[in-house]
Amino acid sequence: xxxxxxxxxxxxxxxxxxxxxxxxxxxxxxxxxxxxxxxxxxxxxxxxxxxxxxxxxxxxxxxxxxxxxxxxxxxxxxxxxxxxxxxxxxxxxxxxxxxxxxxxxxxxxxxxxxxxxxxxxxxxxxxxxxxxxxxxxxxxxxxxxxxxxxxxxxxxxxxxxxxxxxxxxxxxxxxxxxxxxxxxxxxxxxxxxxxxxxxxxxxxxxxxxxxxxxxxxxxxxxxxxxxxxxxxxxxxxxxxxxxxxxxxxxxxxxxxxxxxxxxxxxxxxxxxxxxxxxxxxxxxxxxxxxxxxxxxxxxxxxxxxxxxxxxxxxxxxxxxxxxxxxxxxxxxxxxxxxxxxxxxxxxxxxxxxxxxxxxxxxxxxxxxxxxxxxxxxxxxxxxxxxxxxxxxxxxxxxxxxxxxxxxxxxxxxxxxxxxxxxxxxxxxxxxxxxxxxxxxxxxxxxxxxxx
Length: 451
Ligand code: PFF
Ligand code: NA
Description:
GO terms for molecular function: symporter activity. It is a multi-pass membrane protein. The chain crosses the membrane at residues 12-32, 44-64, 92-114, 152-171, 183-204, 224-249, 261-281, 310-331, 351-372, 393-411, 431-450. It comes from Terasakiispira papahanaumokuakeensis. Helices cover 77% and strands 0% of the residues. By secondary structure, the protein is mainly alpha-helical. The protein has one domain (14-450): Hydantoin permease. The longest helix is centred in the last third of the chain and has 34 residues, at 308-341. 53% of the residues are buried. The structure holds 4-fluoro-L-phenylalanine and sodium ion.
């Protein structure tokens, strides 16, 4: 949605589109969230379910969102309504777009808080705070950080300000182009960390933890977590990929492109896990430490490496970049909605959307310290509640709406034609889009009610 030509044009190139989609997908979800969720959920069984969800449910829904967007040629809400009308269906399908925009706002509010953590860790690393740090020291550094609401607020503000400036100035285009260089650099640094991990005694345990599934560890809640994260990591269920689709040229092959984006996103998440868990097992840390996991393990790894401080600075800078391209994609739908439905211009709309998100983010900041006892959903802080509501509830439901719409409300001949599928491949696609993906989501929901 940022690389558009004048008026409602198309992506300047296929490459531009892939960059924007990968920019939105690859972010804190891969490097911060995936490892701690693996740790929280007991390891390989979660990884296995996650992979199934990403490929069998996430990928068809990614295709569905792009196709609806490409046909609708409008913002997420109007696109769905338009395609519904084309297919003689009720306008109520437009709710998919409404729920998506709301979800984007909720997610960005806490995403920005974690983006702030990454920003501040650039500074810690640069100041040499990691060199020779002990496991206890790394834990203390992080918990002291979490315990200072003012500091957290400052970094949350800084991150959100960066997002607002980038979106308001319309320079997201440039940032996405930069991602072409920065994303490979991030992968390279992850590889350095993985190689470092291989040299540590905990490596074998880490691999077993991530890749030898013990299916008895699966509960309905774990499976729901894996499904929710599949949506989160691919930026699904928020109208974002729908919006991107509206700038997509007819010549782009949706299935191939989806495969590229999904594989890249998955590889980066797996690499992050393979970088983190050797450190966890080598130092006897708690794999289920939660959202702080990478902020305790990475300082240890960098602290023990040659040139660790510099590598640490570089790593957190690249993480911030990856987070920014995702955050931009989250702010954009809110901005577009305000621009279209109110008299505000782009800068005004961006400021208002940014401030609204920043304000909500303050609740997440406080839930890590002063408000840690305040529960929004039963037993969950504001931060946990927002994550739960969005990842485990809104995203899967909205994504379900998109895939049911594509599989059951749209004309299937035209869908198959657009995907250039026939014969066995067409049957496989229909099986995936009409049955496996939607029924998968429903089964996960139902099983999560029981455990
Ligand atoms: N997919 C991003 C990540 O994995 O970090 C996060 C995200 C971006 C989620 C955009 C949702 C979204 F719409
Ligand atoms: Na991701």
